[in-house]
TrEMBL record:
<feature type="domain" description="TACO1/YebC-like second and third">
    <location>
        <begin position="80"/>
        <end position="240"/>
    </location>
</feature>
<dbReference type="InterPro" id="IPR026564">
    <property type="entry name" value="Transcrip_reg_TACO1-like_dom3"/>
</dbReference>
<dbReference type="Pfam" id="PF01709">
    <property type="entry name" value="Transcrip_reg"/>
</dbReference>
<dbReference type="InterPro" id="IPR049083">
    <property type="entry name" value="TACO1_YebC_N"/>
</dbReference>
<feature type="domain" description="TACO1/YebC-like N-terminal">
    <location>
        <begin position="7"/>
        <end position="71"/>
    </location>
</feature>
<dbReference type="InterPro" id="IPR048300">
    <property type="entry name" value="TACO1_YebC-like_2nd/3rd_dom"/>
</dbReference>
<comment type="similarity">
    <text>Belongs to the TACO1 family.</text>
</comment>
<keyword id="KW-0805">Transcription regulation</keyword>
<dbReference type="InterPro" id="IPR029072">
    <property type="entry name" value="YebC-like"/>
</dbReference>
<dbReference type="GO" id="GO:0005737">
    <property type="term" value="C:cytoplasm"/>
</dbReference>
<keyword id="KW-0804">Transcription</keyword>
<protein>
    <submittedName>
        <fullName>Putative transcriptional regulatory protein</fullName>
    </submittedName>
</protein>
<dbReference type="InterPro" id="IPR002876">
    <property type="entry name" value="Transcrip_reg_TACO1-like"/>
</dbReference>
<dbReference type="Pfam" id="PF20772">
    <property type="entry name" value="TACO1_YebC_N"/>
</dbReference>
<dbReference type="InterPro" id="IPR017856">
    <property type="entry name" value="Integrase-like_N"/>
</dbReference>
Length: 243
């Protein structure tokens, strides 16, 4: 077989990198469309730009994505935001956020991915989630008082966040997820940045109110299902009631 296996592996790695870059560019475009093209006043855009730079997305690509979203360039954004509700195997509630320029193409593909679960208006489940603001950040300062930081930042709640839970959190750093009202995301992210925190995510999201009990086999099956969903090019976020 020679070195064909190596070329195949490199092709897979390059494909994965391309998918990551594509999702980051789409996130930048959407963030600029929703909150404007100035990262100083758009916490979601600021966080997306930080991720893009870490992924070595070029400046030209970033600037085009911002211009497209903000409507300042010749290529205006035509992405639609679509939210699908359904259930993964073992009746785990799932919300899927999609950004697509072709709903007629994307909808059937999402339905195919839900072949192991259920999808559709008859399976509405948003009442099982709280729609909130989420800011994920980390600091190198040892012994950081997370509760105090949450109070000062104006967050309603917080939870520790480790590298194992989010690989954007460096190993050894103090990480946390801060929960706010939907209108409070920017204020929380801004306070954290001004006080030495590195913000990796600032967005609106869906927080499960409860989690179905799963054994190891069930958890693995749900994990595989969610992974397949998240790999779709148009899927930007997958929210699921699973730990």
């Amino acid at each position: 077989m020679g070195r064909q296996w190596l070329h195949a592996k490199r092709a897979i790695v390059n494909l994965k990198k391309g998918q990551v870059v594509g999702k980051l560019v789409k996130e930048i475009t959407v963030a600029a469309k929703l909150g404007g093209g100035d990262p100083a006043g758009n916490a979601r855009l600021f966080a997306a730009l930080e991720k893009a730079r870490k992924a070595s997305v070029t400046r030209d690509v970033i600037e085009r994505a911002i211009a497209k979203g903000a409507g300042t360039g010749g290529d205006k954004s035509s992405l639609d935001h679509v939210v699908y509700e359904g259930y993964a195997p073992h009746k785990v509630p799932v919300i899927v956020e999609v950004y697509t320029d072709n709903q007629q193409r994307t909808a059937p593909e999402i339905r195919v991915l839900f072949k192991k679960g259920v999808l559709g208006a008859a399976h509405s489940n948003k009442f099982l989630f709280d729609h909130v603001g989420m800011v994920e950040a980390h600091t190198a300062a040892p012994g950081t008082d997370l509760e105090g930081a949450a109070i000062e930042a104006g967050a309603n709640d917080f939870s520790p966040l480790s590298h194992a839970e989010n690989d954007d959190i460096p190993e050894g750093a103090t990480g946390a997820r801060f929960i706010s009202d939907r209108t409070g995301v920017h204020a929380v992210a801004t306070w954290l940045k001004e006080h030495g925190w590195s913000v990796v995510t600032a967005e609106l999201g869906y927080l499960p109110k409860q989690f179905p009990e799963l054994d190891d086999a069930g958890r693995a099956e749900v994990g595989e299902f969610l992974h397949e969903l998240s790999e779709h090019d148009d899927v930007q976020r997958v929210w699921a009631a699973v730990k």
